[in-house]
Amino acid sequence: MYHVRFLKVPYTKTSKISIFKRFESKSNRSAEQITLARSPISRPPANGGYIIHAVVTVTTDLGESFLYGDAQLSVTFLSISKDGKESIVSHQIVDWTCGMQALPIELPVTISDIRRIKKQNAAADEFIIKVDLNQGVRYVDHNHGDAENNDPIRFLPVTSQKFEIRDGFVRYKRDDNGFVVRKVELGNLRLALLEETGNSVNKHLWDSGLLLANYISTSSAAIQKKILSSLIPSIASGKIVRILELGTGCGLVGILFSKLVPNSEVYLSDLESTRDVCERNIALNKDRHGRHGKMRFVTFDWDSSSNTASENAEVYDKDWDLVISCDCTYNPDSFGILTDVMQKVIGQTTKLLLVHKDRHGSEKQIFDMLRDKTKFVCDSEVVLGKKMGISRAHILSKN
Ligand SMILES: C[S@@+](CC[C@H](N)C(=O)[O-])C[C@H]1O[C@@H](n2cnc3c(N)ncnc32)[C@H](O)[C@@H]1O
């Protein structure tokens, strides 16, 4: 999958007046430099405006390669009303060309646009910028070729955090610095997840979790039921279902399962450094009507000697119906501690859902280790997506 990322989240450079001057001189210099196709803003008005800047890139989930081809990105500037309603203020198309690694965006915003939207949308004082593939135009991908029918999600759009424009400056709430929002809209699944803009491993979304979410949420109700009962055979009994996710990161998969299984208790576990982003995502995705299971983040290192006694007890002293590990097998050095944990948390009736993307051959060793150490066997395997690295889901249980 390609992830559209902000290398620099939307920002303004200078105060309102000088921005307007820059804006004037730039737009006079070259109309192509600011691509205004389909934008309602054609010229800066006499009474001032802003330029909002951002820098975006299009990479694989690990960031090891950029989209090598031509594409059009659609940049939409939206206002958010107090009740969360989004209205388009302006829109432009920018060109990503083969060989690019970063694309600066300049989005002119006129005062009259802002006034217009405030009038239409009484309390509009917060804004977001969304960058997505221009869906109407085919893109070229020299590295991976055309999308196939069975690879439906190739582009993950990105949305900035909400910001205000005060005195000509883009301003974020203090806690929002360094995060963007991923709107995951697949089938009938609607999630908004915060993700870090930096290079951390734990505060990002990874392909195999996204493809798993896509696979389940775009399946028909009958297939979804079948998938869930093969993962949780006791689901029909009405008893509380206990689910543990190891290495949850931003929490996408744990949150997904809490929505799929409303009579569940989902423990989303990871290192303490992940708590902030994961707890914020849990809070963001709670349904007002409580149509989901209970969710909580727990600090848990696969290296049990690094945990406190109560952290270990929280995970080891429970009977789990389902244990999930998604994109946690990228580093063979941690297979020893990870399989030790799996051995301890998997009981006679527990299922293990192990999801991964084929990143390198040594990942397969985990299956040999699980078989030898814990007598787990693979009940079934599903290919979730083929392009740009095959992602697979395996259901394992005790022999
Ligand atoms: C590639 S990320 C995958 C995150 C998430 N499951 C997803 O699919 O988006 C791997 C996760 O494993 C976690 N992890 C790595 N080593 C760990 C350890 N020793 N104990 C607990 N979690 C660990 C990282 O913090 C990170 O969140």
Task: Report on this structure.
24% of the residues lie in helices and 34% in strands. It is of the alpha/beta class and 399 residues long. It has two domains: 2-177, Sandwich (Immunoglobulin-like), CATH 2.60.40; 207-398, Vaccinia Virus protein VP39 (Rossmann fold), CATH 3.40.50.150. It has a seven-stranded mixed beta sheet, sandwiched between helices. Residues 201-202, 205-206, 209, 247-250, 252, 270-271, 274, 301-303, 326-328, 330, 334 line the site of S-adenosylmethionine.
User: What is the spatial order of strands in the main beta sheet?
Assistant: 15-14-13-16-17-19-18
In round numbers, the mean pLDDT is 85
Supply Rg: 23 Å
Q: Roughly how many Å apart are the termini? A: 35 Å
What class do helices, strands and sheet pairing give? alpha/beta
How would you sum up this structure in a few lines?
With about 400 residues, the chain is α/β, with parallel strands linked by helices. Helix content is about 25%, strand content about 35%.
